[in-house]
Amino acid sequence: MEERKIQFNRKSLDRRKAKSKRNIISLVVLLAILIGVLIYLSKFASDNKNAKPSKPEIANTQNDNNMKKATDFSLIGKNGEPVSLSQYTGKVLLIVNTATGCGFTPQYEQLEAIYKKFKDKGFEILDVPCNQFGNQTPGTDQEVTEFCQLHYGTDFPQFKKSDVNGPNELPLYTWLKGQKGFEGFDADNKLTPILEKMFDEKNPGWRENSDIKWNFTKFLVDRFGNVVARFEPTHSMEKVEAAVAELL
Question: Which domains does the chain have, with CATH numbers?
Answer without folding.
Answer: 47-247 (3.40.30.10)
